[in-house]
Each structure stands twice: as structure tokens, then as C-alpha cells.
Design a protein that fits this description.
This protein has eleven helices and 13 strands. It is of the alpha+beta class. The protein has two domains: 196 residues, Ribosomal Protein S5, domain 2, CATH 3.30.230.10; 172 residues, GHMP kinase, C-terminal domain (Alpha-Beta Plaits). α6 crosses α8 and α8 packs antiparallel against α9. The radius of gyration is 22 Å and the shape is globular. Bound molecules: adenosine-5'-diphosphate and magnesium ion. The site of magnesium ion (MG) has 2 residues, from loops.
Length: 382
């Protein structure tokens, strides 16, 4: 049975009527990594896996929620002190609270929901969950909160109710996602623009290394500090540089001898990456997917050799892709584990995926996971 039918069936059983169906999506980021906190561009899109929820006001002051995937029922009130124990329910509770904080009306409702975004794989299942409910509550209670604020409701939910200090990209992509389009978001000004992504003859596939190396958070803070240090040095000559992404490459060269070599390399990556996002956007407008792929390889090189956030498993997958003439491949996300995102010609797809699974398993002793994705719509009513 289809996911939405299973959801409606359970809703009917629990609540004796049908709910209204809402959905949102996980996301990929084609290019633009470690650029967000440097005021640069990211380039995400929503994907064809997500969360679907049946929702209906229940005339009480309580939310009655059933998670099909956890097979668990939770009831909670809408006041700050009513925060539920279950992690999954906290996302819904947080969205309710953040909606109220923005002046929206939220009353009790019934819901049954399920999803097919792999959890914790870097596809942002949590953003899919948040934006499904942010969108649904806005519609049901007629709040007229604008789309950007719906994304911020999800982001604040992570900050204030789930202990994750994330940026805006995941929720932005999940709310704004559009079939056949990627969205370039300027993380400094929050301006955004859609670009066509219809890779006919190619497929996008993620290969999940299923490893998460522990250095991630301390390394992340060090990378941020390096970027700030490089930006501060450049700013002395060029006061208009607020973030590192405002700097031209030659301005970085001017300060090379004044900053640690490590900071120079980190900054070299970031400035290059901002330009690569722009180059990829131009290439997409021409339908030039070969250039897109080449930029993905350049990003991987930068993340691995200049920014040093890759790892053996991801470099292995990237190298294999290159060897097999895959069009594009790079580590996606913060690094030190997670997935590579690959742009693969149709005719090479099965050969590549099979080889990746086989050779990775032989080398590392466990199988990677494979997630084919198609760029699809974000938050919506079904
Ligand atoms: P991700 O990188 O996928 O966003 P997170 O740890 O941020 O990983 O979010 C995963 C959490 O989101 C899960 O532990 C769960 O609480 C919630 N979640 C995601 N998808 C579902 C689902 N289908 N059903 C219930 N909860 C979900
Ligand atoms: Mg998440």
C-alpha cells in the first residue's frame, strides 16, 4: 500500500474520519559546501522522499500524534511546559511553539504521519518533518505566515527544542523545493533564485559510507576560526569584506604571508567554492551537465586537500567514480563521513553502483547504502 493510504487508514482507525494530507521533502545540496557560515551560496533542492502527514483540528487544546514509523502514539499540550519526551514528537511540538511565537494560531489537532527519508544520512529527514507541519499548521489555521518564516520555524525548532544549531539551508530547501529546479541561496542576503535541473540522460545517486568520524565538531569550529582569521586579514586592505565569501582570490594572495598556511588553504577552498556555485548555475542554464560534474570533482578535491574534511571512505568512493568516468562526484555535507553525491550517465548507472557497493564492502568490511534521488517538490498540500 502507498504511504499516504497507510497514513489515512491509520488516521481513520484512530480518529474516525479522514485527515487533510500534507507533505514535504528531504534535500540534497548539489554544490556549495562550508559556504553558509562564510556568507556564500548553497545550491540545494528538495528530493522525492519526504514526510507525509494527515492532519485535522480536534477542537481540544491537545495534539494527538501517531508516528507510523515508530508505531508510537503521543499526546501533548501546546504550552511551553508541555514538551514531550519522544524526540520525534519534539519536532512537531517545536513547530507548534515557534508558530505561536510568530503570532500564529495553533489549536489542538490529530495527526498520523510517516516518511521515507533515511534518518541521519545527511538528507535532512528532520527538516522534512518540520516543514511538513509548519506548512500544514499554516494552512489549517489560516495563519498566512510567509514561506521564509515557515523555514525559520523549522530552523528555530531545531535550535530551541532539539538542541541542533543548524543554518537555514535544510528547511529552506524543504519548504521552497520545486520539481526540476535547484535553488541558489545567498546565505548573507537570503536572496534566492531557481535554476533548471533536468539532467536528462543522467541520474543523481548518493552513496552513503555509513561512517561518522568523531572529529567533526571540533574540526568544524577550527575551520570556522580559520575562515574568520583569513577574512579579518583581508578586511584590513578591503574593508568591504564582511564575510570571507566577499573576498576576491587575489585579495587572499595579498595576505598569504600574514596568515598561517592552513588558514590560507581553508580560505582558498571557500573562495573557490563560491565561484564554483556560480559556474554551475551558468552551466545549468546552458544544460551543460559535464561542466556541472567537473565542478563537483573540483569541490571534492578542495574539501579533501584544502579544507581537509574528507576521509578515507569518501575519498575512496570519489576516486572510484573518477576512475569509472562518472560525470561528477563529491562528498556532500560537512564531511568526515556521510554520503557522496554523484551525477551518473544512465548507461553507466548500474555498473557504477554495483562496483561502488562491491569494492567499498571489500575494502571497509561493511556495505554502503545507495539512495537514488530525483529533484522534486517541497512543502505542499496533497
Ligand atoms: P537527519 O540528518 O536525517 O535530519 P536528524 O537526526 O536531524 O537526522 O533527524 C532525525 C530525527 O527526525 C529522527 O530521530 C526522528 O526524531 C525525526 N524523524 C525523521 N523522520 C521521521 C519519521 N519518518 N518518523 C518519525 N520521526 C522522524
Ligand atoms: Mg536533521
Amino acid at each position: 500500500m502507498e504511504m499516504k493510504d497507510r497514513i489515512q487508514e491509520k488516521f481513520q482507525t484512530l480518529f474516525g474520519e479522514a485527515g487533510d494530507l500534507y507533505a514535504s521533502a528531504g534535500r540534497i545540496n548539489l554544490i556549495g559546501e562550508h559556504t553558509d557560515y562564510n556568507g556564500g551560496y548553497v545550491f540545494p533542492g528538495a528530493i522525492d522522499c519526504g514526510i507525509i502527514a494527515a492532519v485535522k483540528p480536534n477542537g481540544t487544546a491537545k495534539v494527538k500524534a501517531f508516528s507510523l514509523d515508530y508505531d508510537e502514539y503521543v499526546e501533548f499540550g501546546l504550552k511551553e511546559e508541555d514538551k514531550p519526551e519522544q524526540q520525534w514528537a519534539r519536532y512537531i511540538f517545536g513547530v507548534c511553539r515557534e508558530t505561536v511565537k510568530r503570532g500564529g494560531k495553533v489549536e489542538g489537532f490529530n495527526t498520523v504521519f510517516a516518511g521515507d527519508v533515511p534518518l541521519g544520512a545527511g538528507l535532512s529527514s528532520s527538516a522534512a518533518l518540520e516543514s511538513t507541519f509548519a506548512f500544514a499548521l499554516n494552512d489549517i489555521f489560516d495563519n498566512h505566515i510567509d514561506k521564509f518564516d515557515l523555514a525559520k520555524i523549522g530552523q528555530s525548532t531545531e535550535h530551541n527544542y532539539c538542541g541542533v544549531k543548524c543554518g537555514i539551508m535544510d528547511q529552506f530547501a524543504s519548504v521552497f523545493g520545486k520539481k526540476g529546479s535547484l535553488i541558489r541561496l545567498n546565505c548573507k542576503t537570503l536572496e534566492y533564485k531557481y535554476f533548471p535541473f533536468n539532467p536528462e540522460g543522467y541520474r543523481v545517486v548518493l552513496i552513503d559510507s555509513c561512517v561518522k568520524h568523531e572529529l567533526a565538531s571540533s574540526a568544524y569550529n577550527k575551520r570556522r576560526a580559520s575562515c574568520e582569521n583569513a577574512a579579518a586579514a583581508i578586511r584590513k586592505n578591503h574593508p568591504e569584506v564582511e564575510f570571507l565569501s566577499d573576498a576576491k582570490r587575489v585579495w587572499l594572495d595579498e595576505v598569504r604571508s600574514e596568515i598561517p598556511e592552513e588558514d590560507f588553504l581553508r580560505a582558498e577552498y571557500v573562495i573557490g567554492e563560491v565561484q564554483r556555485v556560480l559556474d554551475v548555475c551558468d552551466a545549468l542554464e546552458r544544460g551543460d551537465y559535464e561542466t556541472v560534474g567537473e565542478m563537483m570533482y573540483q569541490t571534492h578535491f578542495g574539501l579533501s586537500k584544502l579544507y581537509e574534511v574528507s576521509c578515507e571512505e569518501l575519498d575512496f568512493l570519489n576516486k572510484l567514480a573518477r576512475k569509472m568516468d562518472v560525470t561528477g562526484s563529491r562528498v556532500m555535507g560537512g564531511g568526515f563521513g556521510g554520503c557522496t553525491i554523484n551525477l551518473v550517465k544512465d548507461e553507466l548507472y548500474d555498473t557504477f553502483v554495483n562496483a561502488a557497493v562491491e569494492q567499498f564492502t571489500a575494502k571497509f568490511g561493511h556495505a554502503p547504502k545507495v539512495y537514488p534521488v530525483v529533484i522534486s517538490d517541497g512543502a505542499r498540500k496533497l
